[in-house]
Design goal:
single chain; 488 residues; alpha+beta; 5-stranded mixed β-sheet
Length: 488
């Protein structure tokens, strides 16, 4: 029996079943971790998270063998790559070079990837490659080790869900979107004509279950549709598969999705689930369930945690000579051991003198002062690490700087006059109006905005004619991409 446990923020989900090319689900457990102990897959308080997981494991009598961790973290970088068909070592070397622009000097990283497709004629494979900090992986390993669990694997949530879609839903299913709802996080996988094309994950800022929350979910689908437009993908979205919600909510959600311009029916996920009675549990914990689908050792970060050469199975003649030398050396060492043991007994009196010094009250007090200083240093280091983590999270929010405004104004030159109305720092929304005497110039300006990489999405209203000035007006709302406007 295998166990797949998923977490990113507070929601923790565990799927128990048989792991293989086609994962078989037996049951699902779910709970909520203490607030603040893990944020965006980054452990903020290992002790609190470890105690919670241990109690959760014991309460539900979850197996401690063959355990895999599926984690969603903004520390894990990802790219879709076309890689030449090479051996394992060269493939990982190739991927590492592709991530060279994203690596920090002070961090050690490791690589994993999920195979998407293979082109024998071009001698290339398409993969979803990922890079994770080793220090983050060690923290996960230590937390589970303290529970008496030796993790068999650590897999990213993105790679896991993409691999699940590839091996189940993508076969003969045309163009569709898989939307996975997990509390205030929504993740979308875009499949175009059976091939993985794009993945995005969006944070919802409205309360779960409210009409505004449904608008957030539907808006993320609209962003994918805009991505398809900018990439000139003409295949229409045929269906939206939703996981993590109730079937009764789909009717209302269909209406909201349609209002966002996505003309595709919504339905619950049921692909890959052998037992229909478990369909509800599986789609409510799809990230955890996807971990039961084995995508190969390359997708496991622990497989390539340390790249070491395999030992030779047979001893060559040179090796035999070295073994004989080692045995002879050991014999000499035993003789020397007897000599030094005798010498040690002679030095016993000196040892007693030193022991008396080490156990004196003065020396003991100095040792205690040193240990207290070390403990204070470690506490300060932990606070420093926590502050750095918070800073990294803050740096992921966009800022509407002069450079961002300059891009907005520069793209308008020759097409329209603009006036910035507002900027919402919480959501990254920038609202402004564009005016032009020629209607076509306004839409040319919108096309230029869509091509800018600093925007995650661009939305606009229809134009109106201002009779006094004879100008056509249009209101534009953009969402800045993560970290836009912040200095390196």
């Amino acid at each position: 029996m295998s166990v797949s446990v998923y977490f990113s923020n507070q929601i923790v989900q565990v799927a128990v079943g048989k792991r293989g090319k086609k994962g078989t689900l037996q049951t699902v457990y779910s709970s909520v971790a203490p607030e603040g102990c893990i944020i965006n897959g980054i452990v903020m308080d290992p002790e609190v998270l470890g105690n919670f997981l241990n109690e959760f494991w014991v309460l539900n009598n979850i197996p401690k063998k063959d355990v895999y961790l599926v984690v969603k973290s903004n520390k894990i970088a990802s790219k879709t790559l076309d890689v030449p068909i090479l051996d394992k070592k060269k493939t990982f070397g190739y991927i590492t070079r592709e991530f060279s622009d994203m690596q920090r000097e002070e961090e050690e990283n490791t690589i994993a990837y999920t195979k998407l497709s293979r082109d024998a004629k071009k001698k290339k494979i398409k993969i979803y490659a990922e890079m994770a900090p080793k220090e983050q992986l060690r923290e996960f390993i230590n937390i589970f080790s303290n529970m008496g669990i030796a993790l068999k694997g650590i897999i990213s949530a993105e790679g896991s869900i993409i691999g699940y879609v590839k091996s189940t839903m993508a076969k003969g299913n045309g163009t569709f979107i898989l939307q996975v709802v997990n509390g205030n996080l929504v993740s979308n996988v875009l499949i175009v004509e059976g091939d993985f094309t794009y993945y995005n994950s969006v944070r919802c800022f409205n309360d779960v279950g409210t009409p505004e929350y449904l608008e957030d979910l539907a808006r993320s689908l609209n962003q994918l549709q805009q991505f398809m437009s900018t990439q000139k993908i003409t295949a229409p979205i045929e269906r939206v598969y939703v996981a993590g919600t109730e079937k009764a909510d789909l009717s209302a959600y269909n209406y909201v999705v349609s209002n966002q311009g996505v003309n595709a029916p919504c339905e619950l996920v049921n692909a890959g689930i052998a037992d229909s009675n478990l369909n509800f549990l599986a789609q409510r914990a799809l990230f955890a369930y996807s971990g039961l689908f084995d995508q190969g050792i390359e997708s496991n970060f622990l497989t390539n945690f340390d790249m070491k050469k395999e030992d030779s199975k047979a001893l060559d003649p040179d090796m035999k000579k070295r073994v004989i030398k080692i045995v002879a050396t050991l014999a000499v060492m035993l003789i020397l051991f007897g000599f030094f043991l005798t010498k040690r007994l002679i030095a016993q009196s000196k040892y007693d003198e030193l022991h008396s010094y080490n156990t004196s009250p003065t020396t003991t007090l100095k040792v205690l002062e040193y240990e207290n200083a070390v403990a204070d240093r470690d506490a300060m280091q932990n606070k420093y690490n926590s502050i750095n983590t918070v800073i990294d999270t803050i740096d992921s929010y966009p800022v509407c700087t002069d450079e961002v405004i300059e891009v907005i104004e520069e793209t308008a030159k020759g097409y329209a006059d603009i006036e910035i109305l507002s900027f919402d720092a919480d959501t990254g929304h920038v609202a402004f109006t564009a005016k032009s005497k020629v209607v076509g110039d306004i839409y040319k300006y919108i096309d230029r905005l869509l091509s800018e990489k600093i925007f995650m999405s661009v939305e606009h209203t229809g134009y109106t004619l201002e009779e006094k000035t004879n100008y056509y007006n249009i209101r534009v709302e953009c969402i800045l991409a993560p970290s836009v406007g912040r200095e390196e």
